[in-house]
Backbone:
């Protein structure tokens, strides 16, 4: 999820919170002009989606959307039908989906095994009055089998809930209150780090630290050990400006693992998204074991699902018979429909072999994108691990492809210019309008690849991308010139960095939010 709010309008205009003239960037001006043409086409091609959005607002939905975090202007597409990797809009356009509902749609639209399992659950009486059912134990065994870090698990309805439960579990077990997370972190609807936090955020006493320097983070953990209950992180790269689902260096994470042990706080891996990268999640891929792990999204096959688990030391307090029981609950935490869907996913859609093969295919796709960009001398590159990819539009390399075995510090070289982010919008509208492809979102070309994509779909994407490079060669050349390595930061970059990042004062109190 992109942290910078570009506030793009239907005409491609951009408003910022200051008076700095961002149109001093020739690349930005050219990209906005090119995008304006495609956005106008989008408006003309989607009158029924526009009307659906208008009706939603008129019907009383605040802002016309129940998912404001991913809203985009001038109005979002409305889907009326979907199957496998193809969605049909209200205006009849058939779109190949490379977004995968931000990882929740790993198995495409309405997978048959899930539909059949749900129907069976409904026929057996899906509303079982809150009583235990037979499915939950079978599903729990699947998680404890695949994740060696989990002796015990608990289920919830969303990843947000799972992260909340995990944080509160750490606070209960340790008897401490503070929670540490990355600047710009997203751990659910009401759990953000740094300036990404809003008025609805849970009022944890947070310490936010910058990603990329394990030694600095270790010192922050040690400094706050007396009060620190947990460090919660995704085991991937993160910036306040953009999500990069590239697995962190193992040595980097191992440093954090050892420091949490010494401080007596929990290391929580938020694997709601990254658990798809290997049969045992990113933690198995990297060889680092957290104390608590959260999971969710795609395991429900499109239905709401989340959960968390860990070693007995951390989870046993959820036993109602424990003398210090946390006594956690949730009306729908064991609902028969969603658990039937999860069981169907494990049995039919996500074996260890299926997981491994899908991520290997995605790695080949990433390499193909980057080879194509090099061939066209285009200022872009796909970053990520396995089936979680992000296309970043700049000439300067964001991060290295392979980390050194002992690497505990590295930088993310993101160019903080509006032209970088507006090019993602241009690419999105181009792929949609010219080639019927959903290439992430206009805010961020974040590709969370569904298993239902065919080889022909990947080929189609690459051919369309090559045509984009040719069609917008002029704009991309200007973008290259403004985003190559070695340039001094412009006032615009300094401003955008300040807008999105939270300073960390290692000699003072750090970044603490009450």
Residues:
């Amino acid at each position: 999820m992109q942290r910078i709010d570009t506030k793009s309008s239907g005409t491609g205009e951009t408003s910022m919170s200051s008076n700095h003239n961002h149109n001093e960037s020739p690349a930005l001006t050219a990209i906005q002009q090119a995008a304006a043409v495609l956005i106008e086409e989008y408006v003309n091609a989607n009158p029924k989606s526009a009307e659906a959005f208008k009706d939603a607002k008129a019907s009383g939905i605040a802002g016309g959307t129940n998912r404001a975090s991913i809203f985009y202007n001038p109005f979002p597409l409305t889907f009326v039908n979907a199957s496998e990797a193809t969605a049909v809009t209200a205006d009849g356009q058939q779109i190949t989906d490379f977004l995968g509902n931000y990882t929740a749609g790993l198995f495409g639209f309405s997978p048959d095994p899930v539909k059949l399992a749900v129907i069976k659950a409904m026929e057996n009486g899906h509303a079982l009055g809150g009583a235990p059912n037979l499915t939950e134990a079978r599903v729990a065994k699947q998680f404890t089998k695949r994740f060696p870090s989990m002796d015990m698990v608990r289920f919830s309805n969303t990843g947000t809930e799972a992260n909340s439960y995990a944080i509160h579990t750490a606070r209960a077990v340790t008897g401490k209150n503070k929670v540490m997370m990355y600047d710009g972190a997203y751990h659910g609807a009401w759990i953000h780090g740094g300036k990404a936090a809003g008025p609805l955020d849970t009022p944890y006493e947070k310490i936010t630290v910058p990603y990329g320097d394990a030694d600095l983070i270790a010192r922050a953990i040690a400094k706050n050990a007396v009060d620190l209950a947990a460090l919660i992180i995704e085991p991937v790269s993160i910036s306040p400006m953009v999500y990069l689902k590239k697995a962190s260096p193992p040595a980097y994470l191992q440093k954090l693992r050892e420091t949490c042990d010494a401080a007596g706080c929990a290391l929580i891996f938020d694997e709601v998204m990254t658990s798809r990268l290997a049969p045992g999640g990113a933690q198995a891929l990297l060889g680092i074991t957290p104390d608590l792990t959260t999971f969710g999204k795609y395991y429900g096959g499109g239905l709401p699902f989340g959960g968390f688990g860990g070693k007995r030391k951390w989870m046993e307090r959820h036993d109602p018979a424990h003398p210090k029981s946390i006594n956690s609950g949730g009306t729908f935490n064991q609902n028969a429909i969603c658990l039937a869907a999860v069981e169907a996913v494990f049995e039919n859609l996500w074996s260890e072999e299926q997981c491994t093969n899908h991520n290997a295919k995605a790695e080949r796709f990433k390499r193909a994108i980057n080879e194509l960009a090099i061939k066209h001398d285009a200022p872009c590159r796909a970053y990520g691990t396995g089936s979680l990819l992000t296309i970043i539009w700049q000439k300067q390399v964001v991060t290295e492809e392979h980390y050194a075995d002992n690497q505990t510090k590295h930088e993310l070289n993101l160019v903080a210019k509006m032209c970088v982010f507006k090019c993602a919008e241009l690419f999105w509208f181009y792929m949609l309008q010219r080639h019927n492809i959903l290439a992430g979102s206009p805010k961020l070309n974040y590709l969370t690849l569904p298993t239902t994509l065919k080889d022909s779909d990947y080929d189609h994407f690459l051919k369309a991308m090559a045509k984009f490079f040719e069609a917008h060669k002029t704009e991309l050349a200007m973008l290259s010139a403004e985003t190559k390595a070695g340039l001094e930061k412009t006032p615009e970059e300094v401003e955008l960095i300040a807008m999105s990042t939270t300073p960390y004062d290692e000699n003072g109190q750090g970044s603490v939010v009450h």
User: Anything to note?
Assistant: The chain has a mean pLDDT of 92. DSSP finds 15 helices and 17 strands in the chain. The longest helix spans residues 352-375. Residues 113 and 181 are 37 Å apart (CA to CA).
